[in-house]
Amino acid sequence: MEYNHADLFEGVADAIGERVALVCGDRRLTYAEMDEQANRLAHHLADAGVRPGRHVAVQLYNGIEYAVALLAALKIRAVPININYRYVESELLYVYQDSDSVALLYDVEFEDRVAATVPEAPDLKHLIAVGGTPSIPGAVAYDDALREADGTRGFPARSPDDLYIIYTGGTTGMPKGVMWSTEQILHAFWNPSLPRPARPEDIVENARNGGPLVMMPVAPLMHGAAQLGTWIGWFIGATLVYTRKFDAADVWRTIEREKVNSLTITGDAMAIPMAEELARGGYDTSSLLVFVSTGAIFTGTVRDRIQALLPNTMIMDRFGSTESGSTAEAVSGSTPEKGLRFAPDVDDVTVLDDALQPVKPGSGVIGQVARSGYIAQGYYNDPEKTAKTFPVVDGRRWLLTGDIATVEEDGSIAVYGRGSQAINTGGEKVFPEEVEAVLKGHPAVYDAVVTGIPDERWGNRVAAVIQPSGASGPPAAEDLDAHCRKELSGYKVPRVYAFVDEMKRSPAGKADYRWAKQVAEEAQE
Predict the structure, then answer these.
(1) Are residues 378 and 443 in the same domain?
(2) Nearest 5°: phi and psi at 448?
(3) Domain of 354?
């Protein structure tokens, strides 16, 4: 047995096969049933020509099929690729091509976009439709694929160096594939409340001896947090619970029905509607022990409201990234309003100064959060970004997270914000450069700067400062909105437009984002 997710799941399935592994709606699979379905899909993919090291894209809502697809790809040493189901055709084509995917599992609900895009991605040769009968020539229905395949194992030996890739937002706005080995990602995202395993077999024993814990990652599985949360749960023998889409009432009904013990969400965007729904009453939350936010931080008021509604539940903020793994927990009382402070889980998390040397605790020197040890290998198809983000200093390889911070006297890390201008809206990353480029493609736009401004529900909303072209005056916001929606997912489209006679930029042409944010906030008032 290796530190490989497929090896480990098979070991767990052999040990606790009759325990329920996964629940979604009225569907539930035991570990043994989950293993068999993944075997069938894995054999189908292999028979369709998917070889070790090739990439299998997954464009699905949350559900049993998503989890089966992750496991099936790893069983044949292929690499699962997460696709944001909100993407429009141009964004889909970029990820299909950049990831070099050769197979795709997609929800039939997305078939129009898939059908329009796949012909331009010639490597993407095998399509599997989930949730209905496909109309794309050559596509196979998921149920047919499983029905006709072998349910036993019989796969070649795997390696702890097999790749696991998670696509996440990049500096140009288009996502980048973060590459891990299965061994590194397993340890980087290991549950910090448990001792680190000395050998793979320890994980199986841990699951065998674990209690009947029920865990619920609420975020979409297209995000790394939910994917890794699923593996974390399985490797302690837990039952994982999904809802197909996020709906606060459905989440609370599911928590009550399935007696969920541990809940993981993504910041205020999920927390606010969940708090509003819970306040209306009528839900039994007595099973819920832990309520965790990862990928986006609670604001203090929202956290306090949830704690008041769930007085017997532990509320936690986790700090980390797709590249670094789970690295720290928010210090008690720490909030964005008061200043964020995190206590690292591991010794190889620190802050590096401009010379890439560790900041002395209590010195007040500002740098950026960095981690060594269990970190990603780099970015797929992007050696330049890899070299910049993962420098080697004095023989030690670091990940520079881009979070601006300092180290307090007690060793906690005070985080001030992102070094880049990325906008986190409801847990989704929006990169200004991408939106600006789309806006500048409108004939009535001369220049554009995009920034984030505070939003009570989403954390931030996207706002655009526009310098119109010509003397005809500013374009209508409705026209700009329609223009953006042709090229961008809805969450990237600006919610606020501010119009100026002249854009404020540096002599080098760089945008003044502080000024742009002020202008956008004034326009919103």
Answers:
(1) no
(2) -150, 140
(3) 348-418
